Amino acid sequence: MFYKFMNFYYKMKYRHFLDRRVSIDKTAFIHHAATFIVRNNPNASINVGEGAYIGRYNNIHTNSNITIGKDSVLSDYVFISTLSHGFDPSAGRIMSQEDQDKGPVILGDNVFIGFAAKILPNVKLGEWTIVGAGSVVTKSYPDGFVMIAGNPAKVIKRYDHDNKNWING
């Protein structure tokens, strides 16, 4: 009950600071230490779906679009970005080079992202995907009850609906 009150409190306290390009469903739970950054693209957006849970110290950055599906869970310290940094030696100092948008990130419904996982640009995770703690996701995975982990993340298990158990990927 206390967490529900605090979630409501922080939504009310910070709602006037939120960029209008950040859309959070009223049933989503966002910890107060989560960070949403939308860069200078006026068409960029972050959309958090119904019943989603965004844990403490999540960092979500975009200059295009990030979608977090219904009932998805992002554990603490998750990093999601559509951006990459410029590394052109002829363009001067690295710190003065513009971020480059590399494509949207889409998390389907009922996705679970483990503690301190990283979701990199141009990734789509289908419904019911589970990402292991500390994983670095560099490519997309389709719908269908898969468990991915590692750096870079790869399928380690799949759910067998007939036998109702997880089998090695």
TrEMBL record:
- Please name the GO terms that the record assigns under molecular function: transferase activity
Q: Does the keyword Protein biosynthesis apply?
A: no
Stored InterPro entries: Hexapep, Hexapeptide_acetyltransf, Trimer_LpxA-like_sf
Q: Please give the superkingdom of this protein's source.
A: Bacteria
Which keywords does the record carry?
A: Transferase
Identify one Pfam family in the record: Hexapep
This one is known as Putative transferase
Species this chain originates from = Ewingella americana (strain ATCC 33852 / DSM 4580 / CCUG 14506 / JCM 5911 / LMG 7869 / NCTC 12157 / CDC 1468-78)
